[in-house]
Design goal:
The protein is mostly helical. Helix content is 87%, strand content 0%.
Length: 101
């Protein structure tokens, strides 16, 4: 497995892990935050942090590689990362919708 695929798999894995943590926080936090103002502020802050994290995990390394002149590798990394995330989505959908045949 080459460097690009390993990096893409790691980035996609960390992205899925972060999304799982945010989902868990949202499920648990729904009951904890009764104050509407605090809830709104928490959700907006979570949005900002999440957008930043996804930008770093998905686009950070490809952008850096692109600026360093490794244009082909940068595009490959981005496409592999998106491909692994798409595979994770399809797998999660299949697991959640698996039932008796």
């Amino acid at each position: 497995m080459n460097k690009t695929i390993k990096n893409a798999l790691a980035d996609a894995g960390l992205t899925v892990l972060y999304i799982a943590l945010v989902a868990g926080f949202m499920i648990r936090g729904e009951n904890a935050l009764k104050n509407e103002t605090a809830s709104l502020m928490m959700m907006l802050l979570l949005l900002v942090v999440s957008v930043t994290m996804m930008g770093v995990l998905i686009f950070g390394k490809p952008a850096l590689w692109y600026l360093e002149g490794q244009k082909k590798e940068a595009w490959s990394l981005l496409l592999y990362t998106v491909g692994f995330l798409s595979a994770a989505l399809i797998l999660l959908y299949a697991v959640l919708n698996a039932g008796p045949f």
